[in-house]
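explain this.
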Amino acid sequence: MSGGIIYDTNFYSTLVNEVNAFRDALTKRWREEVAVAVRGLGTFRTAFHRVRVPVGEDLWDYWDPINQVHIIYGSCEVIAWAQGDQQGGIPSCPGRTFGPEMGYPPTTTFDRNGNEVIVPNEIVCGMNSIMQRVEDWAYGEGSAILAKLPTFDAHDQRAIESAQQAILAIGSAVGMESSGGSGATFNPSSNADLINKIDKLIGADGEGGAWYTVWTGLAADRLKDGFFASIAPTLGNQAQIAAGVHNLYSARGTIIQEIRSGSLKILRDAGKALDETHTVTTDLNPVWQTFQGMGTALTIGGGWNPALAAVGASCILTGIIGQNFAPETKSTEYSHDVEAVITALWAHLDEQARDLFSRENDYNNGVHSLRDTIFGIDSFNLELYDMTENTATGNGDRTGIHIDIPTALELADTCFECAKIYEDRLIPRITDVQAADASLATEDGSEGMADPKVKALVLEYREYLRTTCGRLYTAGEQIKAAAEAYAATDAEHAAAFRSTMADWDEGSAPGHASDWARATDRSGWQVHIPGAPSYVFDTTPGGEHEAGPEYETEATPR
């Protein structure tokens, strides 16, 4: 975007400075037009949008016949100054009724009452006071404009960018990749981190292992393979949620940026037009864009696949400057006279207000679309298999079901390591995301329709991460317990267990692991059911499936 992102956290002062510059340009041009009108014995506007004096303007009566003699014959110095370069202060006019250019007037004239009077050599010229009033009028017009402009004063774009980097750090750790067409980039996490460890859990020794159901009960129901089958979709969906949240922050940042830059552009072009003698046309694209396609841009590229079979998700990331927000080409045109400039300026301000309303609405629709999508994903595919539904001691006859103890303990250790990454490196980044909360606000600093929903979604996302962490800890504990129970079946297995445990470097799961392992409460979000009355909502997260409400959320009935 032209000039780059505006990082000002005291933007109202910037607006005031620009309005003051416009006031100066307006004062100069308005004084010139008043001077022309007075010299031609015409009329002029004294107000457009400013608050007017209830009793009208008490101006010097330049229509008085005696005063007109001064204006016609006396070469009024104030009028000459106003029609010139207006250098210095307003001059003091001696009020002569004759001058070298126009010569001498008739010796008599008629006053307002129709009485013939002798023309004096000078009168008390009041053009000085009129020119002073013009400055007051221009100030009032500037005040009306300032009141109309969206403020976006203390909104901190750097804080929003930092929040985006924090959410991207989480997303990249769980396998998010930036797809083609993205307007934002990030540094992906090292493959030596979470993803490589996860690969151990969904490989042949993990998801492909046949002993879990019998020895640990780590299974879901007849339609799912259990805990390890839930890992890939969980990380994929968490990556896509991170991308969606990132794009929502981009949406708010883009609204701030484009309204700020649009306001400055409108004011500067209007001020420039007042200094010209011809129509001024400037290109507002891409400085002042609308993004009617924001709702589309906020969706994840390629659509959602809740039951991903491999770790990772390719997502379109949208930058704050909004290249992906479907800009609509705009231009602004100003004629040079005061009334035309004021008329055009206010038309642009009205259009900007309509655009802002539409952008806020698109932003709100974006968060609704994302939350509705998340609401339709089962806990199994969002935060791992529900460990609280596990039988812990296993199911069925263990006869002939063997465990490779080193492999089992390695998997348990990997679960602990993955849980520690979630607890120590991912979940704390949510605090960094929340640091931008104050800047998720409308132009006056208050929360709009969407902002509290975005903040609530961030907190909900933290709960998904916590639940995943708790379930990884619990899985590690149960796999370790299964290996220990198996080791107790004979001396050889016991020796293998002791040998492996000699290098065991993991402690027990933290006390909060079992609390975190519970499914995230999503009862606060409701999704409208297509075709149903407006008051009918789906209040069951995960929606309905052929296998019934236990599908993907509970263990095989016992």
Notes: The beta strands are 108-110, 116-118, 176-178, 280-283, 313-315, 331-334, 527-528, 537-538.
